[in-house]
Amino acid sequence: MVGRIIETADCVAEGAAWLAAADSRFATVLPLVGPLPLRRRADGFEALLDAIVGQQVSVASARAIWARMEAAGLTSAAGMAAASDEALRAVGLSRQKARYGRELARAKLDFDALRLRPDDDVVAALVAVPGIGRWTAEIYAMFALGRADVFAPGDLALQEAARLLFEL
User: Fold this and answer.
1) Which of 63, 64, 120, 155 matches a 20 to 30 Å C-alpha distance to 55?
2) Distances from the Cα of 152 to the Cα of 75, 89, 94, 123, 143, angstroms
């Protein structure tokens, strides 16, 4: 069964209010940051490929590579599957990321069915694809599928925020 889905800014505000009621540290800090934005992304092949492209590079580098991939027609499963090594290298993909992009295209994930699967099944299906680790799967589930009950404890920004908030 699919759990709670975050679909609107009201869902985010409800979660923030729950945190503030549950822990005074959240009650103190949330007014300082203001309303939390809804950060939903599109789901599907392109969203996962974009996540792979963005792994371990700066945001600016990832955007530049993605723009070159779009211009070359390499952001679809068919485009990735048919692309030569040279074409993928020309847009800035490393050999490893080119391989992962092709693996994602070959996986032929059913994104419609994925939307209907339980959280744990979504993460398991995604990490079965080479190039998609647990962090990428969790981030995809949270932001592309809106899964409220998925958490990415391996996220470095989240770890730093928790360290500051909880004085760890």
Assistant:
1) 120
2) 26, 31, 26, 11, 11
Helix axes 9-22, 24-33, angle to 10 degrees: 140
* Residue 52, number of CB atoms within 10 A of its CB: 23
CA distance 164 to 33: 14
Q: How far apart are CA 75 and CA 69, in angstroms?
A: 6
Q: What angle do CA 126, 39, 97 make, to 5 degrees?
A: 40
How would you label 23-34 residue by residue, b for 16+ Cβ within 10 Å and e otherwise?
eeeeeeebeeee
pTM exceeds cut of 0.90: no
Q: What is the pLDDT of residues 60-107, one digit of tens each?
A: 999 999 999 999 999 999 999 999 999 999 999 999 999 999 999 999
Whose tokens are 């969790």? That residue is: 138
Residue that is written with structure tokens 């990428």 in the block:
136
Residues of the chain with CATH 1.10.340.30: 45-143
